[in-house]
Amino acid sequence: MNKAIIAAVLSLLALSAVSCGSVSSSSPPESTNTPAATAKSDAEEELSSAAQRTVDKMKETASEQGQKLGKGSSAPLEAEADTVLRECINSMYTADYSETIKYFYPEPICNTYVNESETEDYEPHSLPDVEVTDIRITSSSRLAPDTGCACAENYFNITAEKRDISGFSVKVIKGYSVTFTADLITNGQKDTESKEVVVAELENTGWKVIPLSTEQLMQIFEN
Known about the structure:
alpha+beta
């Protein structure tokens, strides 16, 4: 089993959660025929008018910044966010799906994934022998409130909508684009893996990790 199977599968899950457009990435894609690409038309039709207006406003604001979401303002990751991210990274490589997804979504969304039968499609039957020996934050930048934070907010709210969770909404207070490098020992072999993620603070919920780059997150709503 590949050392990054959980991280890769959960990234795919994050992309398919909203399925609003095609996504290109600097990371190796799991498949060119992802649910995000094939479900584009259906997902766009399911967006509520309120969510669509927010997306349109976000796209207008982002027109001059292009894909520089949060990358124009380098800033160290806050202590609490750093702790949550490191716990999440360890879980991504060493724990199972039901444990790791808790770092990705607020409880109402998380429960819909953990409690339904499709969980078996994502959770591997056995885990590789992986140890995370070191985690280094190689870059950290604030998300722009009207672009990066708005995009992250829509990611959570539209995911909840598609999961048929009524009366649910979140507000993203602030966030970061973070690149990390993890040193791993997989079945006795040393290796490293680098990944860009978004870390967002949700009002009354705390910090959550979106296992997508800012470019991926932006492109979900661009097309």
